[in-house]
Design brief:
- The chain is α/β, with parallel strands linked by helices and 140 residues long.
- It has a single domain, classed as Rossmann fold (3-Layer(aba) Sandwich), CATH 3.40.50.
- 34% of the residues lie in helices and 14% in strands.
- Strands 2-3-1-4 form a four-stranded parallel β-sheet, with helices on both faces.
- Helix 2 packs parallel to helix 3.
Length: 140
């Protein structure tokens, strides 16, 4: 939703393990509100539109996701970012953006188990589960 009336943009962060329903929920929210949907996986697509995970690009794709989000918020466009965010520090850039752009912040956790569409191996998901951090009280 673009805010031409001077209203604050919304920044919604959706966190959860692979296959928990993050992307699906983000899509539904964006369809309903007109917000922009961003996630790191969007930047792991080859020129033919095929998803190609490359762990060497993780830092770059997350940085690109942050830059895109910042750009949209800076013009008053609401954004939904769906990423694993298993540790709180992984959200910090977005938390700072929300504050900087006076965006209304919402953090949603997905706990479904639908099977992940990107073929993340079980051992990687279990490692994410082990390092999962609960949201600090101020964000709950």
């Amino acid at each position: 939703m673009t805010n031409h009336s001077g209203n604050k943009p919304d920044l919604t962060l959706i966190r959860g393990l692979p296959g928990s329903g993050k992307s699906t929920l983000a899509g539904m929210i964006c369809e309903k509100t007109g917000a922009i949907h961003l996630e790191a996986d969007q930047f792991m697509v080859d020129r033919y539109g095929n998803y190609r995970f490359d762990g060497r690009k993780l830092r770059d794709v997350h940085a690109r996701c942050e830059v895109e989000c910042n750009g949209h918020l800076s013009v008053g466009q609401s954004v939904v970012v769906s990423n694993t965010f298993s540790e709180i520090w992984e959200m910090q850039a977005y938390l700072d953006m929300a504050e900087r752009h006076h965006a209304a912040l919402q953090i949603i956790e997905c706990h479904g188990r639908f099977g992940n569409v990107h073929g993340v191996p079980d051992d990687k998901i279990n490692a994410m589960r082990k390092r999962w951090q609960q949201l600090p009280e101020r964000y709950s």
